[in-house]
Predict the structure.
Amino acid sequence: MLPVRGQDDSATKPARLVGTRTAWTPVGDGEFFCPGCGGDRNYQRLTGRRRFTLLGVPVLPRGATGPVVECAACRHHFGTDVLDHPTTSRFSAMLRDAVHTVALAVLATGGACARTSLETAASTVRAAGFEDCTEDQLSALVEALAADTGRLYDQPCGAGLAIELHESLDPLAPHLAPAGRESVLLQAARIALADGPYTPAERDVLTTIGGALTICADDVTRLLAAARTPS
C-alpha cells in the first residue's frame, strides 16, 4: 500500500481554529529537470485530498487537488507540465542526435564526395557529443542512405529526408534558445560551404532545417548569408 503524507498548510503558523490540510499520495516517480534546483533531480508525482480542519484535526473533505510533481531534493511542488522539459542528459542526447542528422542531410545533398565537407561535418558531430565520429563513418552512412532510398547526390530535399529532419528537430526546437537554433543552422551551412558555394540542393535542405528549427524564412536567408562571411 502506498504511503500517505499529510501536509498542514499552516504548519509553520500558530494553531488556528479552522484551516485546511492536504494528504498527498505518491502515484509515480522518475527523474526530471527541477526548475527550483536548476538541475536533474528525482521526483514523485502526487495526488492529494484536501480536508477542513478544526483545531488541527481533519473533519470534512474539501475535494481532490493535484496532481503535482514534488522534487526529492528541494521538496517544491510544480505542475505536471514541468515533466515536458527534458532532463539535462536527455537534452544533450537530443542535441547530439539532431546535429548528426543535420550533418548527414547536408552531406547527402551534395557534399559527400568532398573531403573538406566530410572533415567539417565530422568535426561538428564530434563537438556535439559523438567523440568517435570519423569522416569514413559519415561517408559510409551517406552511401548506405543513398543505396537504401535510391537517392542521388545533389538532389533537392525530398519528402523522406524532410520527415527525418523534422522527427529529429521538432522535439528539440522548443527547448533551444533562439541563439541555439541559429547555431545548429549555421553549423549545417558551414558543412555545405566547406567545398564551395551552396548548391540549389544544399540551399533547399538548409531551408528545410531552418523551418524545422522554427526559424523564419527571412532569418534563414540572413544566416545563410552570414555563414559565407569569414569570422
